[in-house]
Amino acid sequence: MKRKIPAFKSDKEAQDFVDTANLADYDLSGGVPVQFEFEPKSAHINMRVPKALLDAFKERARVRGIPYTRFIRQLIEREISGHGSR
């Protein structure tokens, strides 16, 4: 049976753990993919949407733990990159 990852009080504790532990011994099934944004934002858009749609964006973003503007940007990027659902 795989062990549970311990809680860390600092980034240094987490880094030390990753540097020394054999991660194959730990249950990583609860991991969540993270996408970092590196490109600076140099343009903006302004659009009007129904309140119900904005509320839906905000709720889905809240569930994912990200700002709703980032969630909307991710949807746009996914569609443009061809990874959107058809």
Secondary structure layout plus pairing:
Elements: H1 11-20, H2 51-64, H3 68-80
Written overview of the protein:
With 86 residues, this protein is mostly helical. The chain folds into 2 domains: 1-31, no CATH class; 34-80. The protein has 3 helices and no strands. The longest helix has 14 residues, at 51-64. The model has no long low-confidence stretch (mean pLDDT 89).
What is the ordering of alpha helices and beta strands?
A: HHH
The mean pLDDT is 89
- Helix residue percentage: 40-55%
Task: Domain count, please report it.
Answer: 2
Low-confidence stretches: none
Q: Report strand %.
A: under 5%
Q: Report the count of strand segments.
A: 0
Overall form: elongated
Secondary structural class: mainly alpha
Task: Give keywords.
86 residues, 3 helices, 43% helix, mainly alpha, 2 domains
Outline of the structure:
With 86 residues, the chain is mostly helical. The chain has helices spanning 11-20, 51-64, 68-80.
